[in-house]
Design a protein that fits this description.
Distance between the termini: 88 Å
Mean pLDDT: 85
Low-confidence stretches: none
Largest sheet: 5 strands, mixed
Helix content: 40-55%
Strand content: 5-15%
Radius of gyration: 25 Å
Strand order of the largest sheet: 3-2-1-4-7
Shape: elongated
Number of strands: 7
Structural class: alpha/beta
Number of helices: 11
Length: 310
């Protein structure tokens, strides 16, 4: 009979990728003991998975409603009194063929602290006051720490862009001198990639904060993958199973989600959470200007001889 503490230690070391002979040498036990502990663990997992087959229809339905987000599936199951471990549920979903194989990365970009920010927008369907609407999700992320800021708008023009970027810079408590964007006409006046010209009002806005907008080349959206990937995470985690009273409630819940989930969840690529990485990046950020002028929109109106505005 293998002691529970030895068995748990063997399992933990095996999950970290340690080989059987190394585990045996480290713990001072035989290889057969290590193999027996691992066999017992696999048998337990198989038994647990088989016990969850009774919930197969519920898991399948919930998985589709949550658009493949196993974290949200587990939260909903726990609310119904069905306790399943995350790794067990993930393996069960994979075994029954619900989860599609992940695509491999084509490459990586490496950024230093305080070097770059990335900005983009994405249309999201969500429920506000019982009605399904299409909202524009604006996002900005620090490329080094991956700290994220998002806001939702009914539409996204240059006015909303300046409002959002101003709020994002204040949220970060500083800025990076380079902001990588796509070739949308909201910020770019004409041209694309290296030949793009930034709209005058956006260029003037950038000078206030000391940032330069850099559009990526056409067809190279991976250049700003730091902000592209969070949009999928937002749709599959934040928006799943949530409804909102109005736009203010939507953005308040989004801010809470950033503080409680998105920026505090450890990332495998970082080895820590974005908030922890931000502590190291913050000293490298350029400070905010002493005075941030209010964002306004200039509109032309005709006034008749009697002083009425049309």
């Amino acid at each position: 009979m293998i002691a529970d503490d030895i068995r748990q230690t063997v399992i933990a070391l095996s999950n970290k990728g340690m080989k059987i002979r190394v585990i045996a040498r480290t713990l001072g036990i035989s290889r057969n003991t290590v193999r027996q502990a691992l066999r017992c663990e696999r048998a337990d997992e198989t038994e647990k998975a088989s016990s969850f087959e009774a919930y197969l229809p519920l898991i399948t339905q919930t998985y589709r409603q949550c658009k493949g987000n196993v974290v949200r599936v587990r939260e909903i199951l726990n609310e119904r009194g069905i306790a399943i471990g995350y790794s067990t549920l993930t393996g069960f979903v994979r075994d029954i063929g619900l989860r599609e194989p992940q695509t491999k990365r084509a490459g990586t970009y490496v950024f230093g602290p305080g070097e770059e920010m990335q900005h983009d927008t994405s249309p999201h369907k969500l429920v506000i006051n019982g009605k399904t609407v299409t909202a524009q999700c604006a996002g900005l992320v620090l490329a080094y720490s991956r700290k994220l800021f998002i806001r939702y708008y009914p539409c996204f023009t240059r006015f909303e862009a300046r409002v959002f970027l101003s709020q994002a810079c204040e949220f970060m408590g500083g800025v990076c001198p380079r902001v990588v964007i796509d070739n949308t006409s909201v910020i770019v006046a004409h041209g694309s990639g290296p030949n793009a010209e930034i709209a005058p009002e956006m260029e003037a806005f950038g000078k206030i904060f000391g940032v330069t907008f850099v559009p990526h080349r056409i067809g190279h959206a991976d250049r700003k993958a730091r902000i592209e990937r969070p949009f999928s995470y937002i749709e599959k985690n934040f928006l799943v199973g949530r409804t909102f009273r109005d736009w203010s409630d939507l953005n308040e819940q989004a801010l809470l989600w950033l503080d409680n989930t998105a920026n505090v969840k450890p990332k495998r690529s970082l080895g820590m959470s974005p908030e922890q990485a931000f502590v190291m990046e913050k000293p490298y950020l350029e400070p905010l200007p002493p005075h941030i002028p209010p964002i306004y929109q200039t509109l032309c109106r005709r006034v008749d001889m009697e002083g009425f505005v049309s």
